[in-house]
Every structure is written in C-alpha cells, then in structure tokens.
Design goal:
Blueprint: H1 4-14, H2 28-42, H3 46-59, H4 64-76, H5 80-93, H6 95-98, H7 102-111, H8 115-126, H9 133-155, E1 167-168, E2 178-184, E3 190-196, E4 202-210, E5 213-214, E6 218-219, E7 230-235, E8 241-246, E9 257-264, E10 267-268, E11 272-273, E12 284-289, E13 295-300, E14 310-315, E15 326-327, E16 338-343, E17 349-354, E18 364-369, E19 380-381, E20 395-397, E21 403-408, E22 418-423, E23 433-442, E24 452-457, E25 462-468, E26 474-480, E27 484-490, E28 497-502, E29 512-513, E30 516-518, E31 526-528, H10 546-558, E32 563-568, H11 576-596, E33 604-608, H12 621-627, E34 630-636
Parallel strand pairs: 23-29, 23-30, 32-33
Antiparallel strand pairs: 1-22, 2-3, 3-4, 4-5, 4-6, 7-8, 8-9, 9-10, 9-11, 12-13, 13-14, 14-15, 16-17, 17-18, 18-19, 20-21, 21-22, 23-26, 24-25, 24-27, 27-28, 31-34, 32-34
C-alpha cells in the first residue's frame, strides 16, 4: 500500500493551481534536507524521516511541501493528531495549493474519529474540476467510509459512551518481534499466539494466565515448532487440541494447509494434516474450532468463492472425519477478503475480518450471531474505535465475553505488532460462557464410559453442542448463559442422563463439576424425567420435555426387546381422585407420544399413582415439587 506521502505527491502532479506558495524561494539547505527525507520515505523509514522534515521546517517555515510530507509521515505512523495539525498549518500557508491534499487530510481526520469533518473535506476534494479518475475513485471510497461511520454512530448511540482503552499485555508476552493471532482457552488460563522471529520464522508461544498476571511466554513444547513456516494458531476450548496453518515440506497439498496437534504428556504431538476435505493446492489458514470440536471455520482462496479469500466451514462426524468444506455463502463472503474467523465458546457468536463489507476503511472486524433456525445473521460491524481507517486483524474474546485480545502496532508497542486486550462494548459481546466438566461412569462398576454428551437449546429443542468423552469417560462442554438448556448424556446399553440448566433468567457464577453415573439397562432400572413440567391441572406435553422423550425413544430403539412402565405422580394437595386422573393422563400422554413415533404399544404400560409414592416430604414446597414427577421403569427385558 502506498503511503499518504506518495498519494499526495501523485495528486499534486495532476493539477496546476494558482498559488502563493513559491517552492523556488525555499532555502537551499532546507531543500537538501528535504531530498534526504524523500529518500527515507521512499525506503519506508518513516521514523527516521520525521526529524529531517522537522529540521526542514525549522530552517524555512514557509516550506509547505515539508509540512505536507511530515503530515503524511505522521499519518502513516498513526499519529493522526500531529498529522491533522500539520495539514492545517500547510492550508494556512497556501489555501489554493492545499486543495488537492484534502483527501489525505480527510483520512487523518477520520483517524481521529472526526468523520463529519472528514466527510466535508472529501466532498470538497471531489468537487475539484478535472481531477483524475483514480482520484475520484479514491475519494468516493473514502466518502462511503465516512458516511458509513456517521450512520453507524447514529444507529449505535451507546458507542459515544464506550471507552476504548487497549492495554498492552506487557513484556511477559510481547517482544521486539511481532506477536499476533491470540487465542485463549474457555477457562481463560492459557494464552497461545504466534511470534514472528528472524528470517520470517514463526513460532507458537504460550503463557499461563492467572490473577497474578501472565507468565513469561515460552515456545509450545513438542514437535509443533520444528517447522519454521507456520502461522495462524487456535486452541480448542478444552486446551487439548491446537489447529494452525503451516507449509511443511512434502506433507501438504500445495500452499498453506491446516494441521492439528494434540496434547500428550511429552508435549504437543507431531502435526497432522487435516486432509483433502479441508485442504487444497491453494491457501488455507486462520482456523477456528467450535467449543465441541465438531465444526471448523477457516479462510481459503480456492477457486469457486466470491472473492479473494472466503470463509469456509466443515463438520466432523462421529468417526472423526471432516466433511468437504463448504463456502459460508454470499451473505458473509464478498468480492474482497474474509479472514480470521473466531467462534466464541458460546458457539453462537462468530467474529471475522473483511475488507469487502461496508466499513471504516481497510479491513474491519465483524460479528455474526446464530439465529434460532441455525442460520447466521447478517454481518455486524463492531464500530469505531475498535475498527479504524487501518486494517484490523484477528480478534479473540474471553469466555465471559468481557475481554477481547488482538494484535496492533500502537505507539506503546515493544516492536512491530504487540498483543493487547480491551473491554468489549456491551452490545457486541457474546453470551457469557462457563463450562461443565466431569466423568461419565458405569453406576455399577464405577469404570469410565466413553459416551455422547449433548447440550440442547430448550427454545427450539435443537442440539447446540455435542461432544464425545474420552476413553476414561472425561468430558468438557461449554455452557453459554442467557438461555435454558437440557444437558444429556447417553450410551448404548445404558439409560440416558439429563439435567436442566435454566440460565435465561439468572446469571451463573461458577464452573460446574458434574460426575455422572449411567444406569445400565437392567430390570427395574428407573429414570425420573427432569425436564417435563406439566402446567397446573394439565396433561398436555410441554415442548421442553420432548428432548428427554426423544432420548427415551433412542433407548427403546437401541434395545428393541425391553418393556417400560411410564408412571405419573402428584403431591398430596387436592382431591385424591382428581390427582389419580391427572397422574394417569400425564403418563398416558407420554405413551401416546412414543407410539406416534413408532414404538409398539405392547412394549409400553402407563399408570397413575397420584400421591401414593412420594420421594420427598409433602410438607414443604421443595418436597412437593419433587413429588410432582413423571418417570419410567424397565419392567421387561
């Protein structure tokens, strides 16, 4: 990308305004220094050019080109305030000569967030007669950006109250080299990132996060850092996997591919290429893994997309195989580049960068939210000042949704790109996310059981996440707040387990540790439905209970010879005869549902017990609530 200095010089060469500024009368010593500064700017040695240009102005205060070049240099260094002041001083010196510099002046005004002033300047620039087609194209692009910024601010008044105060992660993480692509585990205790060293080598680093701060970053242990050509990195939410982009000699399909490494007692394993359903002979990078490790988002420039680089998605099946990658479509991908997807642990909020969507200039960060039907919403710009006139990079957001991590070359950088953190504006936060972890065991033998663990959204009865425990039965699943969920565990040959997490009306404040003993399918094995809440004096099946009933249906289909009794129970309030009828009808409603799903009626018995079989004290509200239940018992094998 050409510097603002060269853009300015191009514009100056295109027009011939009458002027009071007379370059011929500039002092020779200042001109000699200016030639030196131009050489430095041409070599992109901006910081070295600044004091030289300052000396030019000290020698000759009428040297307008020195003001303009210094303003352009400061703009490139993101010192927008200094840049704007210098442009304004140049304008005072010669208003006519300054006309063609209104475009770079507007860009630096926008860098300060002064979008209405920037719009005025670029509009005046575009009114200049006989400007080149290139100037018109550049001016109209910036005008659209400023108009977008002004409109966004009107639609998001809370933006005016937001304080964007990025904090450098410090010397424990940042170095004289570039650090980028941060990723954090859902427990917010490990930060992983990429560091670029000498000779374009890239290494993966990690730092432990605690209340005391960040530990000194160390190269990730194991074989993962052997190859020098690698880049974008992400960790799974449980910290057991790392996915990254690499170009390994003799191992890939062509350009950069996506690889996986798993944690072992000796460190991270030798990288494994994710295969032809993910990788091609073209470029694949910036992977992001869903919290249940079942969905992979990444960017690729393979043919058949909508622009240069598009976002793609692939799904992992029960056998661990990835489906052929699918383009995420034209509502997300553009004629530009879409990069750096990051799926939050809530599994419902995806952040990414794009330079093809309406924004502030360059590449901006956007978010997508998953709708109830499973489709993604339209991309939403994160707004200023998170997005600026510059190119924004990858973003990672903590599990609680409050803190974001990103790379930037701000003025307090230790060298090139550093990692920073900042507080997210409330309206662009994901759901706060906790996690449930524990072991699934056989209730009788106490041995660990590899099992399927699922989290269902009670609003639409759809599985939000699904994970498989390891061989020891250990599981880890994220739990977003803000909705009601049913958590289920099932394995063939066992009764399923379910539990309700009602988080739509209350804020959870801790991690859940849940060890789950599964009951083998045996005679008299019993299960109490935890999520079937009939309305008062009603036996109409609630929609939230269908999740558990479908799990019972699965048990019946996997064990085609078993017979079950569905029983209804009430507390001791009300007339016994009314309770008998109500409990019977509730049990019958469940049997009706199962038979409509294809279960032979000969395998099902329903019975109402009213208040005759309490499992808790009927003298308390809590006890009566437990007694108002439906359950099933295996009565035949």
């Amino acid at each position: 990308m050409k510097s603002l200095f060269f853009l300015s010089a191009l514009l100056v060469c295109s027009f011939g305004f009458s002027q009071t500024y007379q370059p011929d009368l500039i002092k020779p010593k200042a001109l000699d220094l200016y030639d030196k500064a131009i050489m430095l700017l041409g070599d992109e040695q901006l910081k070295d050019a600044v004091p030289v240009l300052q000396d030019c102005i000290l020698i000759d205060s009428n040297f307008v080109d020195a003001y303009l070049s210094l303003a352009a240099a400061y703009g490139q260094l993101k010192s927008y305030k200094e840049s704007v002041l210098l442009y304004q001083r140049a304008r005072i010196k010669d208003t006519s000569y300054f006309q063609v510099y209104k475009l770079p002046y507007s860009i630096n005004l926008a860098g300060l967030g002064r979008f209405e002033d920037a719009l005025q300047q670029v509009t005046e620039f575009l009114s200049i007669p006989k400007i080149s087609d290139r100037s018109i194209k550049s001016g109209n692009y910036r005008k659209r950006c400023y108009e977008f910024a002004i409109d966004y601010q009107k639609k998001h008044p809370q933006q005016n109250l937001y304080r964007f105060e990025p904090v450098n992660l410090g010397d424990s993480v940042n170095s004289i080299y570039s650090e980028y692509y941060p990723s954090v585990t859902v427990s917010d205790n490990i930060l992983v990132f990429t560091r670029r060293g000498e000779h374009l080598r890239e290494d993966f680093m990690e730092s432990n996060m605690s209340k005391k701060g960040l530990s000194f970053a160390q190269p990730i242990k194991g074989d993962i850092n052997i190859e020098p050509k690698k880049g974008a990195i992400t960790s799974s939410q449980d910290g057991e996997w790392i996915l990254f982009a690499g170009q390994f000699s003799g191992q890939g399909f062509g350009n950069f591919d996506i690889y996986k490494s798993v944690y072992t007692p000796k460190g991270w394993s030798e990288p494994e290429n994710l295969g032809a359903n993910i990788n091609t002979e073209f470029w694949e990078s910036s992977p992001s893994l869903s919290p249940d490790n079942r969905v992979l988002y990444f960017s690729s420039n393979r043919p058949g997309g909508y622009g240069g680089k598009d976002l793609y998605v692939s799904y992992r099946n029960a056998e661990g195989k990835w489906s052929p990658a699918k383009n995420m479509g034209p509502s997300i991908n553009t004629a530009g580049d879409e990069l750096a997807p990051f799926i939050h642990p809530d599994n419902q909020t995806l952040y990414f960068t794009s330079d093809g969507l309406p924004g502030y200039g360059g590449s901006d960060i956007y978010l997508l939210r998953k709708k109830l039907d499973g489709e993604w919403s339209a991309p939403e710009n994160l707004g200023y000042p998170i997005n600026t006139i510059e190119n924004e990079g990858s973003l990672a957001v903590s599990a609680d949704g409050l803190t974001a991590y990103y790379a930037s070359d701000r003025v307090d950088s230790r060298g090139e790109l550093d990692l920073y953190k900042f507080e997210m504006r409330p309206d662009i936060r994901p759901y706060r996310t906790l996690f449930v972890k524990g072991f699934v065991t056989d209730k009788v033998s106490k041995k660990g059981l590899p099992s399927s663990v699922e989290l269902f959204d009670n609003e639409n009865n759809k599985a939000l996440m699904k994970v498989q425990t390891d061989e020891k039965g250990e599981y880890f699943i994220t739990l977003p707040t803000g909705r009601d969920y049913t958590f289920t565990v099932n394995r063939k040959g066992y009764l399923f387990y379910s539990e309700l997490y009602a988080l739509s009306s209350k804020e959870a404040d801790s991690v859940y540790q849940k060890n789950i003993p599964l009951q083998p399918v045996t005679l008299n094995a019993n299960f109490v439905f935890n999520n079937i809440f009939f309305k008062n004096n009603s036996y109409e099946l609630p929609s939230s209970g269908l999740i558990e009933l479908d799990k019972l249906l699965q048990v019946l289909n996997e064990n085609p010879t078993i017979r079950v009794e569905i029983s209804g129970h009430t507390d001791n309030l009300g007339k016994p005869e009314d309770n008998q009828i109500l409990s019977t009808n509730r049990a019958k409603a469940i049997v009706t549902y199962l038979t409509l799903k294809g279960v032979d009626i000969k395998r099902l018995v329903y019975k109402g017990y009213a208040a005759t079989k309490p499992i808790a004290d009927n003298n308390t509200d809590a006890g009566r609530a437990k007694n108002r239940r439906t359950e099933f018992t295996i009565i035949g094998l």
